[in-house]
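Schema walk-through. Below, the input block comes first and the output block second. Nothing else is stored per chain. Lengths vary across the set, and this one has 318 residues.
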Amino acid sequence: MKKIIGLLVLITSLSPLAFATGEAEKTDKPLNIVLIYHDTALEFGQVIKAGALAAGKELKCNVKFEGPVGIKVDEQVAFIENAITRKVDGIATSNPNGEALNPMIQKALDAGIPTITFNSEAENSPSKAFVGQGLVESGRQLGHVTAEYIGKKGTVIIITGEAAATWSIDRETGFREAMASYPNVKILNTVSTGWEEQAQYAAIENAILANPRVSAVASLDGGTTPTTGIVLSRLNRKDIVHVGNDLSVQTLDNIKARWTKASLSQFPYNQGYMSVKILYDFIMKGIPLKDVDTGILRVDEKNIDEYMKKLAAGEPVG
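--- output ---
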């Protein structure tokens, strides 16, 4: 009887250790890893998906890319819940809303599923690692690039699809920090446009028409960046400096046509690829989960042709 009790104690004590080190039971079955993104309809999200699937193919594991169409936090919660119910081997999720998603990440961890975040991260997240751009720093870089183009003086409007989202708060924080070092630059206001296309056009156009002498417009996300460039082209306002984020096809076209001066990429392909890889390495090899900074890439008039060629060749650009 004592031997049986001793064995049970040993097994119980090893279970948390096995999860902590990633030394999970290995079988011949491939791992099932799911990436859950807050809007799978976005062109940007499809680049993340391409990287995730490439890693799955390379590592011979099953990878699914799931999530709502349009940013619907309640639906994203349901996707995580479903992944937990399916007992997948690993979860990576974007985290644009910590109030709703932090508890779900903790629930997945409590179920023994290694869970990380990618692309966007919320304050106090229990995630074991984050794969993505340093968003505050990208906001700072956006601020410095904007100041550079306007000669360190003038007025700026900030555009965002959702001002309350964690990624937007982080980028705006960095942007304002950078602008504080330019006493002759004034931020007029922040415009939160929402995600419906026509509403975005109207909000951005109204903001510019209300401030006709504005020097620059800075877009904090990959949704409002191409829209802002289109609005400026419709208004024929090349005198207004526009800088933004991410490299959608339309944004690249806008840079080529000079409606957008520059945009900062966060390497979405690598966000997908590295999310799968670090989960795989943790589960199969016991390599500790650590944050991966995917970096900042500036695309402007100096290197736009290079990225137009990549796009024409079918390379993942985002």
